[in-house]
Design brief:
Length: 145
Amino acid sequence: MTQPLDLVGALADLPVTLPPGRLVGGEDGREPLLWVSDAPAPGGLWARLHRAHPDSGLWPLLLSPLDRGGPDFRPWLSGELYPSDAGAAGLYDPAALLRTWWETGGDGEDGDDREDGDDREDDEELAESLAPYGLTRTGPGGPAT
């Protein structure tokens, strides 16, 4: 089993300046598990953080809340995080797992669970934040259908 990453130390050693944000720990009160910016990240930050990954050990993530209209960006800022041992990761086919997550929104269930009346502005905002990738998966396995 690998040693857990010292997140505070890794953030301090980053060759990239982060915008204002905060460390978030899990519900069990453990050490910080992730750092989240207070506002959408400036253009190019994700790419710079991704390039720094081999040295930092940190992965940049694009996160969306469980409830887009909710005030607390659950579960990311509310501490509803339950880390587990990554030892079982080798049991999964990464391409198949990512394809399933992309096609189901990460919950394993097909379909769009938004209520009727939600407008397309949310999709447009999400697509803009995923640029240049957009809402269509283009990775292993080809575009989502």
